[in-house]
Hints:
Distance between the termini: 5 Å
Order of helices and strands: HEHEHHHHEEEE
Structural class: alpha+beta
Number of domains: 1
Mean pLDDT: 76
Strand order of the largest sheet: 3-4-5-6
Radius of gyration: 19 Å
Amino acid sequence: MINIYRAIQNSQSFIWNGFFHSVRLLKYSSSSCKKLPPIASVIHKSQTSNIRNTLNPSLLTCMKFKNTPSLTISRKIHLTRSISVPRTPDLIYFPDVLRWLKTKVKFKYLRNVWDPSFSEGAFIYGSTHAICRITEIINNNKVAEFEGLLTAPARIKLIEDMTKKLTRTQREIIRLHPRDIKILVPMSVDLSKTGLGKECKVLMRVLALKWFPQRSGYLRLVLVALQSEFTKDYTHGIDQDWNISSFDVMECTVLTETPSNTL
């Protein structure tokens, strides 16, 4: 059994308003433990029809991913075309009950009063892929592709973080696939009115785990913690698109765990 909880607890992410204090490791075994379904798989098919009303066209393109081969266990790999990696540990998040209820109530109010087309499930699905797309752009260092995905202030700040805050190693390991995301939680929903203006902001926090091949050929477990804010202007109705108004990399580090000590 892997002691991944201790490894994550020792990371700097635990100063993050206690968010990851609510993270627990599920008992992990390659032979007996069933893997939790990916975030996207828990969304009912009928909800996907609302995705087009959830994110702007640029973000919708983030949802196209190629099928990936089945995963098998391999303690040591070589950087070849065919790479086999083990399944990452499963984590579960225990939210603060009052915060969870408050978020649910605001989502319900958003749907019933402001936007009948809103679907929380479709929003989670779309934001998952949008966040992965941002990490892909960071990894590829193609900042021009942020256009249409982030607001201008968010884009300027993220580009500055890429050059001054993130190391070369962090940019190399940050790229995520939806299957890497273990926890994606709406932390707050802000419905604000200023005069005739109406705006909704949803703050999302992400915890992801993935295996990353080292130059030596060994796998190491990577922890990525992100915070992203999605904003939609409802001043002129529901036709406006969701945009990413903030994107922060809270943690991106290589842990000491290897596949050999996860079983």
